[in-house]
Structure formats: structure tokens, C-alpha cells
Design goal:
The protein has 201 residues and is α+β, with helices and mostly antiparallel strands. It contains five helices and five strands; from the N terminus they run αααββαβββα. Strands 2-1-5-4-3 form a five-stranded antiparallel beta sheet, with helices on both faces. Strand 1 and strand 2 form a beta hairpin. Helix 2 packs antiparallel against helix 3, helix 2 packs parallel to helix 5 and helix 3 runs antiparallel to helix 5. The protein is globular, with a radius of gyration of 17 Å.
Amino acid sequence: EKADQALYFAKENGRNSGCLYRDDMSKTAKRIDKLAGIISGSLVEDQRRVETMLEVLELQRSIELGIGEKLFNFLGRIIEVSEAQTGILFDIGEDGEIKNKLARKKFISTEVEEEHYNNEIVDKCIKSGTGEYKVDWNSYQGLDSVTGMPDWQSVMAVPIIKRGELKGVLYLSASIKTKEFDAGQYNFVKTLCDIISSIYA
């Protein structure tokens, strides 16, 4: 866990570097550069990201769709742009308890009934009001059919906050064989969550 923390710290501070673990290294995703993950320097990639932000803004402003449809479409778009395999939106009540959840999988255009997630990561996000991205070494969905190794997941938990009040938590996961979330992606997804947060009462 400490090695994982140091690895993410090194990635956030310039990649192509190494560092020793220190107690003051934060597990949470905090980035000084507010444009990290939004502006990449690639004209094609930056255009795609700005288009995604505009799509989410249009979705948030739509008067034809109810809140459930907006969240369902938002979750599908987030899974697509983040390259996650699964996504879950947790609706959080005033008491900090999960009231409802909405789960989707990549390439499936309908809601899925039950999806695996790490409850500790979601609880931490609810209690602290801060998000994180990490490789979840503690829980996994199953074993890889070829190697027999656990199918560890790269996960991201993002709080959805409106006027200082936690309204929801977005939880994304992908097998580390295909994707590993980083600070830039976290920042981009957090920005999209900030845009959609105004649909909550």
C-alpha cells in the first residue's frame, strides 16, 4: 500500500521519477494544476474533452429529461470518456447513507442489477468528502481465466458536491490489465461531476 502511494505521488509529480515513501504523502487525489487532464496539448484530444464538457452541460440543462435519465446518460458518458469498464453512481442522503445506486457497464446501454465495488473506498469518500484513484489490491471480482491471477481493479471514487453538501459518489473501475487511472483523468472526471451536480435538489 505504501509503495502504491509513493508510485502515485511520483506520477503526480512529473512521472519518469522515483521517490521514497513518506507519511505525509496523501492517498487522495489533490492536484495544484486545475487544468491537468482537461488540457493535454493535443488539439484532437483537447477538442474531444471540451466537447464532452459541453455535452454534460447540455445534459445538465435539458428540460426534457428527468433527473434519473440525466444521471443514466451521464454515467454512460463518463464510462466512455474515462475508459472504465463499470461505473456506479451512489445517491447519498442527508444522513450520509446510500439511498440508491445506479450501475452501468461498458458497451451495455441498460442499467445492470448488481456490480462489484469496494465498500471501504465508497465509505471513505462519503465520510471525507474527498475522492481518490488507486489500484484496489484488497478486493477483486475474480481470477483471470488465463493466468489464474486476481483481476485487480484500478478504481476512482469522486464525490458529487453541490453548495458544500455531498449529494453522490461516482465510482469507476477497470481491470489494471487494460486501464490505470491517473491524476489527469481524476481531475477531468471531477470537473464533469462538478458540472452535473446542479441537477441535484
